[in-house]
Amino acid sequence: MSAIDTLPPLRQVISDHDLVARKSLGQNFLLDLNLTAKIARQAGDLTGCDVLEIGPGPGGLTRGLLAEGARRVVAIEKDQRCLPALEDIAQAYPGKLTVLNADALAIDPLEHLTPPIRVAANLPYNVGTELLVRWLTPPEWPPFWDSLTLMFQREVADRIVAKPGSKAYGRLALLAQWRAEARIVLSLPPEAFTPPPKVSSAVVHLTALPEPRYPADPKQLERVVAKAFNQRRKMLRAALKGMAPDLEDRLIAAGIDPTQRAETVHLEQFCALANLIHA
Ligand code: SAM
Q: Is the pTM for the entire model greater than 0.85?
């Protein structure tokens, strides 16, 4: 029995089901249920919400989410070995947990979910950024999710919340901050995981804004930002060469000095530039 529910402690679950962690699946498990409940609490009030979880593994965070009162949890796990352990959780919380044995990059779980939807995950590092970019760039805004509460390598978390002028500032920061409020809510040392990864981790909480902070066409903004940061050490008049005939005038009209580098340009200026180049 554990602190948050009547299921066995996670070390026992792992040994009962012989869940030796696999590096190829990015498996670094959280075994402290008080910690997984704390992460679940960062996702906000879960009562009345469906939660999408990616990579439940032996189910530490899943149990945290259910113990915190999630209306339902839909969990996508690629590793078949974890299914019996997850089935035990489903039985302890009748009708509340649906497990999809699939690759999160290849499945659309929306038919299993009812709004309001929150996403929470201790993401496999190899697919985390790809999923985040997908969640941040849907065809329509607002997206299907109200909030994302996600574990990343510390370095990736820093890139999501970075501000202009910092080394971490780039495409990911702009993408995240244009249409969401992003903050780091928890830092975790390698020892919090079994086995411990080489680097520290952090939980980032993103809340979807009802509409973008500044108006811009998503595709144009993405194009300008990608090109600007592709050669981040170059002055923008050089990095963005070829994007518009009178590029320098448009940079100035957007409030940007053509000799500025991408890493010093604010989101509002990038949006203005995307609109001016589009026009
Ligand atoms: N949530 C668990 C925890 O906190 O202890 C496990 C986290 S572990 C970092 C990542 C989990 O994602 C593993 O269980 C792994 O099998 C699963 N996984 C890896 N790649 C996946 C993919 N493409 N789709 C779904 N699950 C995946």
A: yes
